[in-house]
């Protein structure tokens, strides 16, 4: 049922040489005071189209991002713009990446239908493929629970968990079938995911049995795509079909929703920064959008190139990061300057 492939190759084989260069900084004229926008080229010589998408922050100031088009996980050093790619294996098409409690980079790889771990020090790649019964899961996003178990979603109607200590990989059919997409952990240690095709929010109600509880958002057919917890445990959800950002508070069961600016918004990703400001991406507006829950205001940061298509964001205090999958760039927005 479970197969583990260890790609015990040398760092030189796994990682192509880094391209050292100055960052390609293009400050947007429309950026308001207190903000600075910087773009980084995600390509390296011979890389072809990268498809730079989901990003995650490392502990050393670098950022890692998935190259969905060329089957790579890439380290970006903001100090000099250097990009170091790590090839994940034949047929790889990585979707999501997070940094685990062990310091490793954990990837949901739809192309290999596998959970992949990359060691940031020696670039060693480990691959755990899903059982044959779930041969086309369309893996999406992962998160760690307080016990160090990795939970993940697959759009073709699955959710699962991987226990690193025992290398046990378990997969289940999701309630209501297709759609599981974004996933998050609250400060209280609870795990929640959203279903894009299923239009709902779900809690892994029992981390032992993996029992799922469905929670219905008030907006019908909203297309819940991504979810992120703030510091209070409130769940912020990007709604692709409705163009809303919604908020569910599990403490009292309440919901609120705000429509993004513009005529036809489609809200893709959501990331909540350490000050509980909410960062979103809107594909039709070709923009990253910041929402302040305190005064319910939106601030838009349009890309300077068409078709940016920023995927899942991440960041650190004072910096919001995203991958422009349509332009092969990484964007950083510094705030509070």
The Cα radius of gyration reads: 19 Å
Largest sheet: 5 strands, antiparallel
Which stretches of 5+ consecutive residues score pLDDT under 50? 1-29
Percentage of β-strand residues: over 45%
Order of helices and strands, N to C? EHEEEEEEEEEEEEEEEEEEEEEEEEEEEE
Helix/sheet category: mainly beta
Folded structure, characterized:
- The chain is an all-beta fold and 337 residues long.
- Helices cover 1% and strands 49% of the residues.
- It contains 1 helix and 29 strands.
- The chain has one helix spanning 11-14, and strands spanning 3-7, 35-41, 52-57, 63-67, 72-77, 82-87, 94-99, 105-109, 114-118, 125-129, 139-144, 150-154, 158-163, 168-173, 180-185, 191-195, 200-206, 211-215, 224-229, 235-239, 244-249, 254-259, 267-272, 278-282, 287-292, 297-302, 314-316, 319-324, 329-335.
- The strands form 7 sheets. A 5-stranded antiparallel sheet has the order 1-10-9-8-7, with no helix packed on it.
- The termini are far apart.
- Mean pLDDT is 92; it is low at 1-29.
Question: Which SSEs are present, and which pair or pack?
Answer:
Elements: E1 3-7, H1 11-14, E2 35-41, E3 52-57, E4 63-67, E5 72-77, E6 82-87, E7 94-99, E8 105-109, E9 114-118, E10 125-129, E11 139-144, E12 150-154, E13 158-163, E14 168-173, E15 180-185, E16 191-195, E17 200-206, E18 211-215, E19 224-229, E20 235-239, E21 244-249, E22 254-259, E23 267-272, E24 278-282, E25 287-292, E26 297-302, E27 314-316, E28 319-324, E29 329-335
Antiparallel strand pairs: 1-10, 2-29, 3-4, 4-5, 5-6, 7-8, 8-9, 9-10, 11-12, 12-13, 13-14, 15-16, 16-17, 17-18, 19-20, 20-21, 21-22, 23-24, 24-25, 25-26, 27-28, 28-29
